[in-house]
Amino acid sequence: MNISPFASPVYVMLKPVGSVCNLACDYCYYLEKKKLYPDVKNYILSDELLEKFIREYMECQTMQEVLFTWHGGETLMRPISFYKRALELQRKYAGGRRIDNCIQTNGTLLTDEWCRFFRENNFLVGISIDGPQEFHDEYRRNRQGQPSFYKVMKGIDLLKKHGVEYNAMAVVNDYNVDYPHEFYQFFKDMDCHYIQFAPIVERMGRHADGTVLASPEQGEEVQLAPFSVDAEKWGDFLCALFDEWVQTDVGIYFIQLFDSTLANWMGVMPGVCSLARTCGHAGVMEFNGDVYACDHFVFPAYKRGNIRTQTLTEMMYSREQLQFGVDKQEKLPGQCKACEFLFACNGECPKNRFLRTADGEPGLNYLCRGYKKFFAHVAPFMDFMKQELRAERPPANIMQHVRKENGKLIITE
Predict the structure, then answer these.
(1) What is the arrangement of strands in the sheet containing 11-14, beginning at the earlier edge strand?
(2) How many Å apart are CA 219 and CA 221, to the nearest integer?
(3) Which of left, alpha, beta for 77 (phi over 0: left; psi -120 to 50: alpha)?
(4) Nearest alpha carbon to residue 131 among 165, 166, 202, 181
(5) CA 17, CA 45: separation in Å to the nearest integer?
(6) What is the pLDDT of residues 272-296, one digit of tens each?
(7) Helix/strand/coil (H, E, C) string of 43-77?
(8) DSSP one-letter code for 214
(9) Which residues are catalytic, by number?
(10) How far does CA 299 lie from the centroid of its chain?
């Protein structure tokens, strides 16, 4: 029996068309990354780099299951033939490992042919959709300013028609954060059982290369982007969402943040990196082979190298990348280290740590107030579900013990 030198899998998202997309969503942090490559006319990943990536990605894994994540820009701007070739190369270099594929798309380019391909090859499809039409079309439009909601819904209907497994990724912003019930009911009405609610937090700070979104190391002088979610309202959104879910939907609808919170309550690795104790194990590779520390850190300072001159193993296990991972824990301010909910939050994503604590120490997460409100709200329910799991009973049992008293949810014995 071989003993693996590394304890966890490595993930490197691949961007086969770089940041090119048929939409122009206002809050997208990928679109402007094209400005990092001003002299490039073709943002397409070459066949040579595709094979090199797949071979090295397999080589740097220490687990029997390998997950490929295809991201963009818009991934469906590459033809099906590209992904068929990728599957051939995966089989060529699999070495007996089990391979899974996950692809993120805005859904507007889905066709019967695409959906048949995904179904036949067991792809998990992530669909970006921001809830009902009014919410979705506020920021998710094409370059001509035309809305995209109906095209996305048509794509989802095709996924359902062909039995493709999919989940929804919904961005929570300044516009839709005030409507948690309408937001959630929309996904229930469309029978979507796996949902990721992602808070958008971006800052505006111009760089010499023409990019306008602030890099993490930029200080407090840069302004919050207008579409960013309010921290307090983010907490209110989560509390309202949780109250509805915990009464009727545990074990039926799976909300990534709630599942990850319960994982942290149990002391196991959460399914979302932002709530994990450390990070650094999920990089991203651009169309030209450049590898960055994380998809939220595609800035020159966080470039780890290029696959043409360094292996993925060298880059993902480099001193800089390993330090990037442990910095998440080591650079927490004292206020966070003393917080009763540190185990649940772990400081959240480092990209959002641009505030100062009450003592003036840098590194406080912008969303702290919201998360603290949420964790305090759900603590008794998480404690109950934790006890059920430890007794090898389903956490969904909680629904039999929740009732409302004076407008507030409580747990009965």
Answers:
(1) 254-255, 194-199, 166-172, 123-128, 98-105, 65-70, 11-14, 282-285, 290-292, 303-306
(2) 6
(3) alpha
(4) 181
(5) 6
(6) 999 999 999 999 999 999 999 999 9
(7) CCCCHHHHHHHHHHHHHCCCCCEEEEEECCCCHHH
(8) P
(9) 295
(10) 18
